[in-house]
Design goal:
The protein has 5 helices and 23 strands. By secondary structure, the chain is an alpha+beta fold. The protein has 2 domains: about 20-205, no CATH class; about 225-350, Gyrase A, domain 2 (2-Layer Sandwich). The strands form 5 sheets. Strands 1, 2, 3, 4, 5, 11, 12 and 13 form an 8-stranded mixed β-sheet that branches.
Amino acid sequence: MVGTISAVRTLSLLLLAALIASSCRVAVEDFDVAAIAPGGSHSALVASTLPAVGPVPTSSHWHAAYVVRVCDDVLPPFESDNDPLGVHSHGDGLMHVHPFFEESGYENARMSLFADAMGFEVSDGELTLPGGGTWRDGDLCNGVPGRVFVDRWASPDSQSQAERLFQGLDEIRYQADGELYQIAFAPVDSFPVVPPATRLLFEVSNLASAPEPWVDAGGFDADTGLDGVAIWKIGAVGTEPCGTAAPERVLYGEVRCFEVDGDKLAAVDAVESARAVSLNRQPAVELRMMPKLLALINGHFASSTNPLALAIEVDGFVLTAPQISRPPVSDRLVVLGGLSNAAAVRLAEILDN
């Protein structure tokens, strides 16, 4: 981890050398700018129609590149390393988002946490930067009225359209790894500056496209509910023929066979509710766990540092086998990997009965 941070610092120093001037500011013309469609949407880039849950506490480690711009000046990155809740920076032009607690994870992972850590404030119509300086809607930029806004790209592709936000600025949520942000006071029709640290995202995050769906959640009776569902700890994984092991139900590829470690937990005793969601642009299912499932997970980590592999079994088939690397900080468990939107919706329906 230390080596990674050191490498990022070295790259960022080279990347942001243009910012080191006597004024600590550089004109917009010295940076890449991108076209924008004010009020545009990036919904096509995420799991469409599914609500985004945000980064999972103690598990997700996301990054977003940002730039701060006042009129025609691009400011250097914030230097603060304050990190009370797991949303911080290393002076590298990146927002590091790995929430420590539920209060800074899921839907609570917001830009306001980064602002608090860095010492700036952004709200509707007002931007205050550390060290002094407050800009409000209507103040002038070279004789032209300016406004406070945030531009957001939903992916690290700076050529994609950015969404220009004027309202709810202190409520902006992180919805995926690799987002880009311009925090600005500038004329309303100005082109956004592409964050200089954008290229660093590919060094610190895995931004590969999500794999093709492979979970086969179709073919179950419409009335299939919790009576036919079990959740259990996986003891061993083999290949067909499965014998007494539970086979995996997949759309294509090799079928794995899962052996049970311990007792099966009836889903009616394990899941309080379920819903289909999007996590980091991938379809997923969020479970609200009952105490027995929480106890199973915490019991594993009480005696082992190895990840826990769970099986979610429906009518004798394992539909998905999530791996849990750390004990959860709440009763929420997000399951993803190999799901299509339709499969996530169907699995959530089954688990929510």
